[in-house]
UniProtKB/TrEMBL annotation:
It is found in: Secreted. One of its GO terms (cellular component) is extracellular region. Keywords: Secreted, Signal. It comes from Sorghum bicolor. InterPro entries: Expansin_CBD, Expansin_CBD_sf. It comes from the Eukaryota. Its main location: secreted. This is Expansin-like CBD domain-containing protein.
Amino acid sequence: MASSSSFLLAMAALAALLAVGSCSTLMTWTIGKDSTSTRLVLVASADVSEVAVKDKGATDFSDDLKESPAKTFTYESKEPIKGPLSVRFAVKGQGYRTTDDVIPADFKPGSVYKTKEQV
């Protein structure tokens, strides 16, 4: 009987580990179809807020991007956007994250870029 209960306990522990591990996924950014050389539309894979980007060579992040439909953020620039771009964002209820050089210089609408950040 002891081996049966030990087996059940081990299976319960394994199920709990798998459940916790599956709760977090890697953050991805999809480039929106309306993106151009001066307009970047980012679609987040998670509930985020306060998204900002930094062009290559810039010292500061942009002001927060405008959020349109849920999880969609737009960056408008007067000059052509210079990649690779770094993205700073707040995960709702989890604080700020920054991913350096996540959007390449030759980004194209429809492309999906994964980060190393779990959300």
